[in-house]
């Protein structure tokens, strides 16, 4: 299903990739098949400049680029344009990139062999703020790293709220603002969540939440 052809209704995407041939192929799919309005950037620095002037609805960001890679660029976008969701779109599903993307608030992680339906769903999820969208292969590898979880986990209502926001890619400061509490309070709750889930960090918490259906990611 393609987007509306009306210019006013078309979702604006910023596609960031240092390979021109890759950008051209993706742009063809995104514009002509899926109906998005696409702007291109060939580097992280160019992407930051374009975001400032055009304010895209969603950024599709390659993980591996020279000089400033996708994770560095993601950090800069989250610091300077926190309202703009970022989907990492990469050939690689290495632990380094996936963990970095989740830790720094990516709205999704897709591999470049994703279907048009997966690409469209990831963009829709990111734009609507419905949580973290993971390519199935990435999700499988992520949850495979976690140990089994107890059948019943007694998370408090507040802890469930915070875990939901963690899965949605919110930083500690953003969670504090959303829930009208201090950052130190959020950190205390996170420590409790990690203990109850028997995990060590955000990445593992997201994996457990997805694997066991603790949090609805749809």
Helix content: 40-55%
Question: Which regions have little confidence, pLDDT < 50, spanning 5+ residues?
Answer: none
Task: Report Rg.
Answer: 17 Å
The largest pleated sheet is described as:
6 strands, parallel
Question: Terminal Cα separation, in Å?
Answer: 19 Å
The SSE string, one letter per element, is EHEHEHEHEHEHHHHH
Cross-sheet strand order for the largest sheet: 2-1-3-4-5-6
Specify the structural class.
alpha/beta
List keywords for this structure.
single chain, 218 residues, alpha/beta, six-stranded parallel β-sheet, 10 helices, 51% helix, globular
Describe the structure.
By secondary structure, the protein is of the alpha/beta class. The chain is built from 10 helices and 6 strands; from the N terminus they run βαβαβαβαβαβααααα. A 6-stranded parallel sheet has the order 2-1-3-4-5-6, sandwiched between helices. Helix 8 packs across helix 9. The longest helix is centred in the last third of the chain and has 15 residues. The chain is globular. The model has no long low-confidence stretch (mean pLDDT 85).
Can you give me a brief rundown of this structure?
This protein has helices at 20-33, 44-54, 70-80, 95-103, 116-127, 136-144, 157-167, 172-179, 183-197, 202-212; strands at 12-16, 37-41, 58-61, 86-90, 108-111, 133-134. With 218 residues, the protein is an alpha/beta fold. The protein has a 6-stranded parallel beta sheet with strand order 2-1-3-4-5-6, with helices on both faces.
């Amino acid at each position: 299903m393609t987007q509306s052809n009306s210019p006013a209704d078309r979702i604006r995407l910023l596609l960031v990739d240092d390979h021109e041939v890759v950008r051209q192929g993706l742009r063809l799919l995104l514009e002509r098949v899926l109906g998005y309005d696409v702007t291109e950037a060939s580097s992280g620095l160019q992407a930051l400049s374009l975001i400032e002037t055009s304010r895209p609805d969603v950024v599709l960001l390659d993980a591996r680029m020279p000089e400033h890679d996708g994770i560095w660029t993601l950090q800069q976008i989250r610091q300077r344009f926190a309202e703009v969701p970022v989907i990492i779109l990469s050939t690689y599903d290495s632990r380094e990139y996936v963990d970095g993307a989740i830790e720094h608030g990516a709205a999704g992680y897709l591999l470049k062999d994703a279907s048009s339906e997966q690409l469209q769903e990831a963009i829709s999820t990111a734009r609507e703020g419905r949580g973290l969208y993971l390519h199935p292969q990435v999700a499988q590898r992520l949850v495979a790293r976690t140990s089994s979880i107890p059948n019943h986990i007694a998370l408090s209502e507040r802890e469930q709220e915070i875990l939901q926001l963690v899965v949605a890619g919110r930083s500690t400061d953003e969670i504090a603002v959303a829930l009208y509490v201090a950052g130190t309070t959020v950190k205390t709750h996170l420590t409790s969540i990690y203990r109850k889930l028997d995990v060590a960090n955000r990445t593992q918490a997201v994996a457990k939440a997805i694997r066991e259906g603790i949090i609805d990611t749809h």
